[in-house]
Amino acid sequence: MRNSLFKIGVLALALLLPAASRAEASTGAAPDAARQAVLVNMVREDCGSCHGLTLKGGLGPALLPDALKGKDAASLQLTILYGRAGTPMPPWNRFLSDTEASWIVEKLLQGFPDAH
Amino acid sequence: MRINSLLLSILLLSGCSSTALRGTGDLGVVIERANGKVQIVETSVRSVLGEVAELGDLSHATVEFSRDERYAYVFGRDGGLTKVDLLTRSIVKRVIQSGNSIGGAISSDGKLIAAANYTPGGVKFFRSDTLEQVADIPAIGADGKQSKVVGLVDAPGNRFVYSLYDGGEIWTVDMQDTAHPVISKFSGIGKEPYDGVLTPNSRYYIAGLFGEDGLALLDLWHPEKGVKRILGNYGKGEQKLPVFKMPHLEGWGFYEHYAFVPGVGRHEVVIIDMDSWTAAGAIPVASQPVFVVGQPGSSHIWVNFAFPDNGVVQVIDAAERKIIKTLQPGNAVLHMEFTPRGENVWISARDSDKLVVYDSATFATVQELPSAKPSGIFFTPRAHRIGW
């Protein structure tokens, strides 16, 4: 019972999230708190598999404010959305709206928040 | 008086559960990567015995075991190398050996620990008892540049084999004489080797290439023949498919003379004929495979997947070359580890904060254990496996 409720919850989330992303992309509004938590977890954990949980780098380069200092925010956003040719960095535009990528860049430049 | 003190010590000893005798063959280590801890687990009753904390940044951490299976060597991303006593569940020794590390290996005689590093790129060797450094081999490729080291494995005869990610090389190091390491370098093996694996007979070292298609094969019994490129069509192909998580090569599934390997960027498990080193087919699966792991004593091969399909695990029957089961252990499945006889598989579901243990014969869940953002699961019988 608990399991099926959980599944319904996950399904509901899955249905809601893309719609929310689209809305944000069109209005340009920042992702809401729930979506921000998903994005923080994604950057820390999934981007972290190459860039490190602490974002100090691994197979991919460091994403700490010092390492990104002086880099153009718009080009960082494009790298997230469309990847970087000739490197393992894949495009994430299937999973992130323009606004969400821009929010991630903003947070990376400031020092990315912790997942918990 | 003497008898009294003897009695007292016996009482003290028996009253203290941590000194109770126990073996270590059913123990394991689970990385709780977000909080720098490891859980010490046991696979007989299937429980968490305790935790060891203060291990630093454990993203992509890996573990090797001493040959007596008492100590775990934990390699952290932050370059930390920690020797953990599984019985007392405490840190014996911890050193920060580099700025950014990716993995390790233990020598065939159990006396040397090797750590593969990204920053600065190279391999460092330590005594397994004291963690005192005995050698440092910077990975400076034929291009003169220092390279990240990946795919480090131990090979028989106190040798180690690894790949240079940036330089595109494979190196073997013979550490029989720790004061005089004998290094053999193979350059031009292909672009961006990302991991390496030793075949079960310990004869072939195979590096996966990320920057181009194909695999690099080194016959350790005939190194004079050099590195051979195999499976030219294996890889991302002309379109350079995006890869959302690097596949791992450790624990490839092997069945008869076939190896089952993750397709890079593709939603398939690729089959390699190890007699001819040619492609022998592919099995369509749910997404991009990360680990393709053979179940001990079985033709079953278990596969987990990259983001965003990482909530699914599929089981392939290698004899029939088809998927026989699809499981959903939890969110963000990162690793699968079999008990040595293969009756159970432990699976880490990172975003569900739990470990799920399956009966591999019935696919029934036999246990769930709480774990904080678990990633790698490592059981002590790895101590006796070559190339793990």
Structural description of this entry:
Chain A is built from five helices and no strands. In chain A, helix 4 crosses helix 5. Chain B has a domain of 146 residues: YVTN repeat-like/Quinoprotein amine dehydrogenase (Methylamine Dehydrogenase, Chain H). Chain B is 4% helix and 48% strand. In chain B, the strands form eight sheets. Chain B has a four-stranded antiparallel beta sheet, with no helix packed on it. The termini of chain B are far apart. About 3% of the residues of chain B have low confidence. The chains are: A mainly alpha (116), B mainly beta (388). Chains A and B meet through helix 2 of A and loops of B.
Descriptive keywords:
heterodimer, A: 116 residues, mainly alpha, Cytochrome Bc1 Complex, Chain D, domain 2, 5 helices, 0% strand, globular, B: 388 residues, mainly beta, Methylamine Dehydrogenase, Chain H, 4-stranded antiparallel beta sheet, 4% helix, 48% strand
